[in-house]
Amino acid sequence: MNIGICGLREADGTTPGPNRCQPVVPETLRPTRRTLPPEVVQPRPQDVTWEQILAQWRVVLFPQLVVHVQPTGRTLVNYDTIVYTDDNGVTVRTVTLLGFPVVVRATPVRYTWNFGDGTTVTTESPGSPFPAKEITHKYLKRGSVSLTVTAHYAASFDVAGTGPQYVDGTIPVTGPATPLQVREAVPVLVEPGG
Q1: Pick from 23, 78, 168, 190: most CB atoms within 10 A?
Q2: Is the pTM value of this prediction over 0.85?
Q3: Residue 80 phi, psi (nearest 5)
Q4: What own/partner pairs with CB < 8 Å and gap ≥ 24 does 39-43 have?
Q5: What is the pLDDT of residue 166?
Q6: CA distances from 141 to 78, 79, 138, 183 (A)
Q7: Cα separations (Å) of 43 from 11, 37, 40, 87, 192?
Q8: What pairs with residue 136 in β-bridges?
Q9: CB atoms closer than 10 angstroms to residue 189
Q10: How many CB atoms within 10 Å of residue 153?
């Protein structure tokens, strides 16, 4: 019955005419390509870099030192004001990066004192409280100032017990500001005994 629409069959078994009249020939099976799951690359201890450690853990690793002032809270113009900070020595912290324990050692080697009046001084000592007068500053005019100390840390890190790696240069970390009122003393004459 389809002869009028599709025509006669050819010698190869096909029927001339529209495609719907073509015999269904199974497609040859092509071998399928097996897709492998992506290879998972496990990090190695040597993949941990100092830049990664600093980016993620800087605030945790290095103490921000606070300036202690004597006299506390207020001082006088042209008076030796004593400053010092806590001597923490070596700070050791363990953090985790890329799944590995990283032990960081930080040692303050220099301190830069900013007295809040445009004066800075760098020392190798954290200073000492009275009566030492190890680090002092004289303010020349009255006002409100904020003092800070920047500790410069020498550092090393050890990833998963592979041995210490020393960091070039130092890491500067500035602590919070300590407010101070600078007052001016005014001499007053009084009579003895009266």
Answers
A1: 78
A2: no
A3: -65, 110
A4: 43/98, 43/99, 43/100
A5: 95
A6: 8, 11, 9, 8
A7: 66, 18, 10, 37, 82
A8: 82
A9: 4
A10: 22
The predicted-structure confidence for 37-93, as pLDDT tens digits, reads as follows 888 778 888 889 999 998 888 888 899 999 999 999 999 999 999 999 998 889 999
Q: What SS3 class is residue 15?
A: coil
**CB neighbourhood size of 83 (10 A):** 25
Angle at 12 between CA 8 and CA 15, to 5 degrees: 30
Q: By the 8 A CB rule, do 106 and 155 touch?
A: yes
Query: Tokens for 131?
Result: 């009566």
Q: In the structure encoding, which two tokens stand for residue 172, read together? A: 């500067």
The candidate with the shortest Cα–Cα distance to 58, out of 190, 145, 146, 174, is 174
What tokens were used for 99? 């799944």
